[in-house]
Write a structure and sequence with these properties.
- It is a single chain.
- The protein is mainly β.
- The chain contains no helices and nine strands.
- The protein has strands at residues 11-18, 28-31, 36-45, 52-59, 64-71, 77-81, 90-91, 96-102, 111-118.
- The strands form two sheets. Strands 1, 3, 6, 7 and 9 form a five-stranded antiparallel beta sheet that branches.
- The radius of gyration is 14 Å and the shape is globular.
Length: 120
Amino acid sequence: MALPLNRPIDEVVVTARTTSVGATPVAASTVAVAKGFLERAFAFSEGASSGTIAVAIAINGGSTIGTISFTGGANAIGSVELGLASSNLYVNEGDLITFTPSGGGGATIPAHFYAIINKA
């Protein structure tokens, strides 16, 4: 028998993808498909980069609401718990969520970003 997943049913995951978190970083964006607040975010690189990569998260082009940081390497992953530290974490359906990487090295390193929206 499978173990139950310890996650509430009122969460939605949205994803974005970039062509590079390496020496020439490219921002990635996605859209909030439900209103709620950003609870967690994850970043995953598909290749081997160098340096420490910092990914700034912003809503609708506003100021940074959180940063994911992870050390470069083959298939590195990083995450951040945003919690309810700020009222800036709330999104409406259709809001733009942008992930802006910086600090990485190496050639073009694709990456994926995930934001978890809690609809509660």
